[in-house]
């Protein structure tokens, strides 16, 4: 159902959710200091926006996510390619990666604080950790799952040297890499809030923990909503990449 | 003149399992023989169809002839020289989609056009070949935007533009619907008349083999060897329902243990 390019389904579901929220607050008679209703949260959001604190928190969080994610991408994709292409590198590094991967980035918080202190560097390091391992594994397995037919076609038509990578390997794994980036960015955004609650004194995560400490539940919920909206926007932005003509084949394949 | 000579060719896959799955499990302990002592010669410019029960090693034989795999024993000679690896001299047309899905029809065909060094000439040739296989107007379409038949045509164009001495086609039309397959068959007859390539063609379809080939090589079940070698010295177009073709057809069906009339 689309009206002049506007999709009505999400509007209806969001509208109903907000109504249910308001109704629940009223019926159960929940006091605002326990959990605020939508109107109180909207008011808090306006307050935060007007004071400039909302914008500052969002930019601080996005700054850290962008840097951590960018550094992780720059490190994980090349290393993943090497581990995918070159068997000995995989044999040496894969066990180590699989050992480090399940350690939650949150478990690294004390280490990060000890090494890098309170501030952006700790937060960026934690984002880096949360993105690096998943991206590495995504890239490696993307290389390993290239159809043998494509490799043979390349050999058959004498595609050699650098062209093997630019014409076959990279385009073949690109859709998997984009999926990996999409999922990883979601994780990074999850982790930033937790990191900011402990490791820094700014950002949306800090906004939430500070709201809790000063008993402002309306700020807490406003922060949660902003996290959801930005997460949605980040995902939408990356999902645009999946519509590139040279990537879209994967959707058709399934 | 002989183009290809297959001499004492055997291929067996290595033992892979330590435990037996079933009493006759061929992956257990010993290598699993797929091809056994194949010997045949293929004449230059001929069209040879290979038929045989599924899983008998036809594709393995083709992969060896294309240079993708090495035989266990024996050798394949092209113009008297053993095959050393894949090359644009012998192009493989794959059973499933062999086009690169991230490239347009034109970019895919361009892969085979490496022999044209002048870019203008190259583009003209690519367009000519796409036109020849009926893909004019679809140059910039991606494979997933083309029908199954068009994809096969684009792949054939990509193979032909490389001007290969040998064209290895592994059941290229198996996944197409009946009508499209008949059309592709007709086009293969034309290809055989227009191009000098020696064509080797795997099919499960006996009628297809009878209609296309100058010769049919029938392989036995695994481990596979040449079971029958049938020359087809008939002009095109061929009508399978009458005369010598009809009796030959019956004979082949009889060979594989099925009565054509059912």
Describe, in plain words, how this protein is organized in 3D.
The complex is a heterodimer of chains A (254) and B (262). Chain A is mainly alpha-helical and 254 residues long. Chain A has one domain (49-243): MetI-like (MetI-like fold, Orthogonal Bundle), CATH 1.10.3720. Chain A has 11 helices and 2 strands; from the N terminus they run E-E-H-H-H-H-H-H-H-H-H-H-H. Chain A has helices spanning 8-28, 38-51, 53-85, 87-100, 109-116, 120-144, 148-156, 162-199, 204-213, 217-241, 249-253; strands spanning 2-3, 6-7. Chain A has a two-stranded antiparallel sheet with strand order 1-2. In chain A, helix 2 packs across helix 10, helix 5 crosses helix 6 (120-144) and helix 8 (162-199) runs parallel beside helix 9. The longest helix of chain A has 38 residues, at 162-199. By secondary structure, chain B is an alpha/beta fold. In chain B, 31% of the residues lie in helices and 24% in strands. Chain B contains 7 helices and 10 strands. Chain B has a 6-stranded mixed sheet with strand order 6-7-8-3-9-10, sandwiched between helices. In chain B, strand 9 and strand 10 form a beta hairpin. Chain B is globular. Chain B starts with a strand and ends in a 7-residue tail after the last helix. The mean pLDDT of chain B is 86.
